[in-house]
Amino acid sequence: MTLTQHTDYQVRYQQQVDNSREFVMPFIEKKLPITRGMQILDIGCGEGGVLIPLLERGCDCVGIELDEIKSGYARELLAPFILKGQADIVNQNIYEELAIKRFQGRFDLIILKDVIEHIPDQESLIPYLRKFLKPEGNIYFGFPPWQMPHGGHQQICQNKIISMIPWLHLLPNPIYTGILRMSGESEPVIKELLEIKSTGISIERFEKIVKSSGFTISNKSFFLINPIYQYKFGVKPRKQFRLVSAIPYMRNFVTTCVYYLIKA
Questions:
Q1: How many helices (H) and strands (E) does the chain have?
Q2: DSSP character for 172?
Q3: What is the pLDDT of residues 122-133, one digit of tens each?
Q4: Are 87 and 64 in contact (CB under 8 A)?
Q5: CATH second-level architecture of 4-146+200-263?
């Protein structure tokens, strides 16, 4: 089901701005006050909207985005801050040696909003991010647990019925692929959905990686209804029930989003 934000980059950008201002920033500031001059890195920044409230606070921000089209949109939308030298958008892979040389040890805060579930080998990624942090730097993560109803991002399907079926992505790959093909999905969409399936991450695995990487969790919040749904679907956000949040494994199936702030 194609939604407006899937085809209109300005709508996506504004949703990012609003969600960042109303939910992401307040969550981070419970443990880390955002002050003028802080150095911020947004990995997988998309159109750059998450950075706007930080830039408005006087932070110096860098957005890294692999998608050349999205990074072009970000440069357009953040142009006033880029012209002032307050923001920079880089079309680059963070694993490149050039990225390490340019940004090593620079940032007070790194942001990965709806990104980690797309990156393979999270066990290597999270400790690797330490290279870009100042001592005692922080990292914010916001992501949907893999097993949640639409954790496979099947909402990008063109077939309206398929896009709305919860937990479809949990089927074995041959069955999942067969259903997608029979419903008329294109091979590029099927490839993307299978890639997302292969990189999905659960709450338990994320926390295990954080601990084994030597980070500490300073704040976390689980949502029954993802805050971004307020802007996408007009649905009021709601935090997960405490009892459900405390039940390992099961909570992944009914929690649509988690926020974490971890500290080096």
A1: 15, 8
A2: -
A3: 999 999 999 999
A4: no
A5: 3-Layer(aba) Sandwich (3.40)
